[in-house]
């Protein structure tokens, strides 16, 4: 039932229950390391959201509070989107999609030790920035000249580029392609109103539902 994407989660055998979503996950040294996101009761599996982007939002709120003394709910947290989803696929899978050997070797050379794969386009929202430019199965190589194989690095670049253009280098069936896309403001396409008529609620579809 979850429709989150473009992020990694931590997984652990934990018996978390409903109502605990958003609560901190604390390690044996008392440090908050993640937020509880969801669980599967049939297998006692729980999924935790890492804190990197949470810390970013907290720092933005704190900086605005210190500088201007404004209320936290009025702080703007930039969120960029290309209205598309990626999946992280192993190098064996990217080779089947046509990734060239020289590209794989280059990515392995510049990536952190232990990298196991690359980001591959999974879906593109019609009429979004990537529509008619990217297709499912395209393998992401660079964003603005930087090799990107992890969701965190990709989301960081997009959040820092709202309203700007980014250059994506991909490989499609072994053919290198470069596309220039404008990063949209995720807040601008997030529904913020609804209409209630005789018990029915009518509202625009969210990005996740689309």
TrEMBL record:
<dbReference type="InterPro" id="IPR009003">
    <property type="entry name" value="Peptidase_S1_PA"/>
</dbReference>
<protein>
    <recommendedName>
        <fullName>PDZ domain-containing protein</fullName>
    </recommendedName>
</protein>
<dbReference type="InterPro" id="IPR036034">
    <property type="entry name" value="PDZ_sf"/>
</dbReference>
<dbReference type="InterPro" id="IPR001478">
    <property type="entry name" value="PDZ"/>
</dbReference>
<dbReference type="Pfam" id="PF13180">
    <property type="entry name" value="PDZ_2"/>
</dbReference>
<feature type="domain" description="PDZ">
    <location>
        <begin position="81"/>
        <end position="174"/>
    </location>
</feature>
